[in-house]
Write a structure and sequence with these properties.
Shape of chain A: elongated
Order of helices and strands of chain A: HHHHHHHHH
Structural class of chain A: mainly alpha
Radius of gyration of chain A: 20 Å
Number of strands of chain A: 0
Oligomer: homodimer
Chain lengths: 207, 207
DNA sequence: GAAAAATACGAGCGATAACTCACATTCCAA
DNA sequence: TTGGAATGTGAGTTATCGCTCGTATTTTTC
């Protein structure tokens, strides 16, 4: 069989003590990524920050990348929970409110932990976690496409694939850029204006 | 005085021979970035690829980052030339054609050297070239805002800053994502459809 | 409470990378 | 032609990093 890239734990922690160790390592990794950046996140340093020896680190993570992947997976899980909830809630709404809810959720998702999100977004291409993130993208794309299909009656004639691509990409880019590169757009009024404009952009395109 | 980050040549090459050396180093760096990725781009390897010794490399570049920055600056210069030309040509056109020309130019810009563009986009956060790229963004933003101002009569009432942000960010994201992550959207028909849809998105938003 | 299993430790190994420096070669001005 | 300036060389230095492994400690099992 082919050599799989190892990003899974060597041992799975069974006692409470070791579960706490694993938890501390993932937390420490996230903290160091945010505070010092990817290049400063050496395994020795992560161990030190977590109050754990390098040896223990390598009991649970086969390599440094696996630690970063663990952080990404956890962050992704949080995002997905939030976005899935919003999409589920919006499914039965007419497009005016549905799209608005989705945009609002996208901003909320980016605000969960903006600094971590930024570091991860910048460093993901270097890790084996691309698949993970692309799966996330695909899920959003698929769900939104289904939403459009359900509300076809409210829309102009559309190539659904293309329309979903245009909408999802635009919403993601606008919220991502606003939250991560234009903090000034996040006062309450500015954020409201951003939601309005993004919603308008998407709606006028769809209708 | 404060210690400035060194990304400028130690010596500026004055003879033809040394200019050729510098040129070869930048070329080699770009080639290695595209072929092998950032992590494989060691200074020794770059020197070897350029047919130049490490010693010579360090005569003209204070560190590895400076080499990458040089590649980024060159690529950016190419992009800017293209985009500036398109914006200049579009300045007097009505928005229907102006926006379409801009979108077409954005795709052309991303197609200049997609592989290099992708590697650089991924690695820029790690280099000192962020300012560079942000300057590029700001120029585009400013030019487009001025364009909107000139064509106010054709548009609905707008917050120009916000509208320019929305349009520029969306166009950039759609073209970037399409070219770099969805090669299938770049057959001639698909590309034409993408231009149509992006143009429509922006125009219906503005009008 | 003793044996066994799980967990934790951290000095140190091997690899690699950025960068230097003492010396060689080429170019050019006088 | 020649001497100094510009350019080029690459083995070696220094530093860091990922990771191992022999050992120590804690927990569980019986």
């Amino acid at each position: 069989m082919a050599a799989r890239p190892l990003t899974k734990p060597r041992k799975s922690a069974s006692q409470d003590r070791s579960r706490a160790t694993v938890e501390a390592l993932v937390e420490a990794t996230a903290r160091i990524l945010v505070r010092d950046g990817f290049d400063k996140a050496s395994t020795n340093r992560i161990g030190h920050e977590a109050g754990v020896s390098v040896g223990s680190l390598y009991q649970y993570f086969p390599n440094k990348e696996a630690l970063v992947v663990a952080v990404i997976e956890r962050h992704n899980r949080d995002l997905m929970t939030l976005v899935r909830g919003a999409l589920a809630g919006a499914a039965t709404l007419p497009v005016e409110q549905g799209v608005r809810a989705l945009v609002t959720a996208a901003i909320a998702a980016h605000r969960l932990d903006p600094k971590l999100h930024r570091v991860l977004a910048e460093q993901i291409p270097r890790t084996g976690a691309l698949e993970n993130v692309e799966a996330f993208s695909r899920e959003n794309f698929g769900t939104f496409r289904a939403y459009l299909e359900d509300h076809r009656a409210e829309l102009r004639a559309l190539d659904l694939d293309l329309a979903a691509f245009v909408c999802v990409t635009s919403i993601e880019a606008l919220t991502h850029t606003a939250v991560l590169h234009h903090a000034e757009l996040l006062t309450d009024e500015a954020a409201a204006a951003l939601v309005d404009e993004t919603t308008r952009l998407v709606l006028r395109y769809l209708q």
